[in-house]
């Protein structure tokens, strides 16, 4: 077992051993990640309460927009989760279509974030099928 895996599990992230989670070596950057790995930032887990495996809704978002979780900014990962939690609290199924009624994709230098659509709440709900 690699020391990065031990550290990750000791921090409470509960990565499965078969995921082979690793911390970067000294001097290594996110650009140095081997093709079979993705970059996840520790602060996302510590401060953003992100956990693996991701939820089904997050997987649908990643699949729909065709990018990796490592290409999404940490605040926007929280935004997606917040949207999902709001839907759950109102007993509404969280779907990509509903998410798109409120947010639009913004791409900047290979990274992705979500900006508000700018419509009124009533317009957004109508577009998502809730009148």
Descriptive keywords:
globular; 131 residues; two-stranded antiparallel ribbon; 6 helices; mainly alpha
In short, what is this structure?
This protein has 131 residues and is mainly alpha-helical. It folds into two domains: 1-37, no CATH class; 47-131, no CATH class. The protein is built from six helices and two strands.
Layout of secondary structure:
Elements: H1 3-10, H2 42-46, H3 56-65, H4 74-89, H5 96-102, E1 103-108, E2 111-116, H6 121-127
Antiparallel strand pairs: 1-2
Account of the 3D structure:
This protein is mainly alpha-helical and 131 residues long. It folds into 2 domains: 1-37, no CATH class; 47-131, no CATH class. 40% of the residues lie in helices and 9% in strands. The chain has 6 helices and 2 strands. β1 (103-108) and β2 form a beta hairpin. The longest helix has 16 residues, at 74-89. The chain is globular and about 45 Å long. The mean pLDDT is 77.
Main beta-sheet annotation: 2 strands, antiparallel
Shape: globular
The percentage of residues in β strands lies in 5-15%
Report helical residue fraction. 40-55%
**Secondary structural class:** mainly alpha
Which strand order spans the largest sheet, edge to edge or round the barrel?
A: 1-2
Q: Cα distance, first to last residue?
A: 54 Å
Spans of at least 5 consecutive residues with low confidence: none
Please work out how many helical segments DSSP would assign: 6
Q: SSE string, helix = H, strand = E?
A: HHHHHEEH
Mean pLDDT across the residues is: 77
Number of strands: 2
Tell me the Rg in angstroms. 17 Å
Total domain units: 2
């Amino acid at each position: 077992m690699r020391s990065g895996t031990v550290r990750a599990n000791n921090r409470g992230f509960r990565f499965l051993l078969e995921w082979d989670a690793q911390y970067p070596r000294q001097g290594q950057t996110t650009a140095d990640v081997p093709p079979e790995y993705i970059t996840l930032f520790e602060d996302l887990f510590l401060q953003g309460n992100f956990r693996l495996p991701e939820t089904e809704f997050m997987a649908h978002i990643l699949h729909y927009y065709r990018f990796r979780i490592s290409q999404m900014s940490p605040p926007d990962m929280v935004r997606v989760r917040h949207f999902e939690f709001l839907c759950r609290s109102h007993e509404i199924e969280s779907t990509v279509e509903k998410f798109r009624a409120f947010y639009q994709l913004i791409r900047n230098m290979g990274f992705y974030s979500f900006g508000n659509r700018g419509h009124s709440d009533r317009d957004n709900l109508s577009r998502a099928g809730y009148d």
